[in-house]
Write a structure and sequence with these properties.
alpha/beta, eleven-stranded parallel sheet, single chain, 5 helices, 344 residues
Length: 344
């Protein structure tokens, strides 16, 4: 991609209206407060509107409402943050594929490696694996037997795809992720645990992103499934036989217990989660540190139960009151029964 673009070229490429100097050259992106006169910025959060007055950016992506208050050139967008994300990609050098197999890589003779694939140092590709065209497999990655990597997908470094895992097209998996390890399946036999064989695998759709050190367990019977365009942050745990619908996103430290079915377009904030064997409707939002404990059937609802941080002395007083809730509830019940008798 070009190292620099005129504002008018960006407007044409992304079907946006520009006002100001169309010939101004943009060579990067920056925040409102830090952008240089050769960078483009954006305003989507009203909390940062005051920074617009003093920005040194060459141009700013804004709504029609904010355009009149911008002291520099603008691109007008109905959704400045989305437009920024698309434009920023023009200035992301990324990592170009350099086809070839590093001399330290171990490739099983039975594996199929398509064209234009880069395989880094100390990679292991097992028997029956299939790597489609345009893939990048970074240093230290392991593909165990019969796993498959779809075209133009990237395993960045030290990632493990266990036996039979299928990863679709155009996926990015960040360092340390483990896809397809055994789920936590145990049966208690009176005085000891018996491991339940995890006989399924993991199937990941197209255009997904999986964060660093995230783990997705293989299914016990049947597969754990991520549909297309699922986005998982770092250090997430997805249990066995979980099904995650398309376009769902989860922030760091989310934990989803086994056999939970999550709908499409759901959002899970950091450190939230769900117990096992429930269903969560499409477009559900789960707020920070909240755990879903029963099925959610109504689509488009927002759920939350976390207590925000507060001064320690205030929390101690709150906790003291919480410990008295059961006693208080009994008193209220007694009063209600007394009133019912009096009314009779």
């Amino acid at each position: 991609m070009p190292a620099s673009l005129k504002l008018s070229e960006l407007a044409e490429q992304f079907e946006l209206q520009y006002r100001g100097e169309g010939d101004i050259v943009i060579d990067g992106v920056g925040s409102l407060s830090d952008a240089t006169p050769a960078q483009i910025s954006f305003l989507s959060n009203p909390a940062y509107r005051k920074q617009l007055d003093d920005t040194r950016a060459a141009a700013v992506i804004v709504t029609e409402v904010d355009a009149k208050n911008c002291p520099v050139s603008v691109l007008i967008s109905d959704n400045p943050y989305v437009s920024y994300a698309k434009i920023a990609a023009c200035f992301d050098p990324g990592k170009e594929i350099v086809p070839g197999i590093h001399e330290t890589a171990s490739i099983d003779p039975d594996a199929i490696i398509r064209s234009n694939v880069q395989i880094g140092a100390h990679v292991v590709v097992g028997a029956g694996c299939h790597v489609d065209e345009g893939c990048l497999i970074g240093p230290g990655c392991v593909m165990l037997a019969n796993s498959r990597l779809g075209s133009n997908s990237r395993l960045l470094a030290n990632i493990t795809l266990c036996e039979g895992v299928t990863v679709g097209k155009r996926n990015t998996i960040h360092p340390g992720a483990v896809i397809g390890a055994d789920g936590f399946g145990l049966a208690f036999d009176g005085d000891s645990w018996i491991k339940v064989p995890q006989l399924g695998s993991v199937r990941i759709g197209d255009d997904c992103e999986i964060g660093a050190n995230t783990t997705i367990d293989r299914g016990a019977v049947g597969d754990t499934i991520l549909e297309d365009d699922v986005r998982l942050d770092n250090q997430i745990q997805i249990g066995h036989n979980v099904h995650i619908g398309a376009h769902t996103a989860m922030a760091a430290l989310v934990g989803i217990a086994g056999s939970t079915h999550i709908g499409e377009n759901c959002l899970f904030a950091g450190n939230s989660g769900a117990v096992g064997h429930i269903r969560i409707a499409d477009r559900t939002t789960v707020s920070f540190s909240s755990t879903v404990t029963k099925s959610i059937t109504a689509p488009g609802t927002v759920w939350g139960a976390a207590l925000p941080a507060q001064p320690l002395r205030d929390w101690q007083r709150t906790l003291a009151h919480l410990r008295k809730l059961e006693k208080l509830a009994r008193r209220v019940l007694k009063i209600e029964k007394s009133q019912e008798r009096n009314e009779k």
